[in-house]
Amino acid sequence: MATRTTTATDAGSPSKGIRVGLLQVTGTYSYGATLSASSGDVIQMVNVPKGAQVVYLALSGGSGDMLAACGDGVSDTRYLAYSTMGSATPAVRTISVHASNVPYVYTTDDTIDITISTVSVGTITGGFHLTAIFAMNA
To answer: What are the CA-CA distances from residue 66 to residues 2, 5, 62 (Å)?
Structure first.
């Protein structure tokens, strides 16, 4: 169990953009040759600035031997409940920003995270790619 970061979240690098309108950010994380996914891992994919509202999210990657969720520091399943992520069936999951989490406006800076739950084999490699679009209302 570890907290891991992407270059999009390293050292608290802020999401850059204008303070009004739409802002798109992308984060990619790969487990290197010496790392493996473990139950309880949290991968901080992209930073979310205070005042942002996520309007679109797409997630791809993972391995068929793990369950993963997509959320933030408040709710690990805000955008995607725990589900099997499969490299055998690579697909982009566009995440419905539905009534239970809209309109959620971030009241403080946060990150969009992937949380790993069940890992059913000893070594899991691969990675994740996440793209998010936020609406900023100043």
So the answer is: 15, 19, 8
Digitized pLDDT (tens) for each residue of the chain, 138 residues in all: 566 666 666 655 555 556 678 888 899 888 776 677 778 889 999 999 888 888 888 888 766 677 888 899 999 988 888 887 765 555 566 666 555 656 788 999 999 999 988 776 655 667 788 999 888 876
Q: Match 């239970």 to its residue by tokens.
A: 100
Tokens of 1: 């169990």
Whether 5 contacts 130, CB under 8 Å: no
DSSP 103: T
d(CA 12, CA 48): 10
Question: Long-range contact list for 88-91, CB < 8 A, 24+ apart?
Answer: 88/64, 89/64, 90/60, 90/61, 91/60
Rg (the chain; Cα; Å) = 14
Residue 27 β-bridge partners: 130
pTM for this prediction: 0.80
Name beta bridge partners: 131.
26, 58
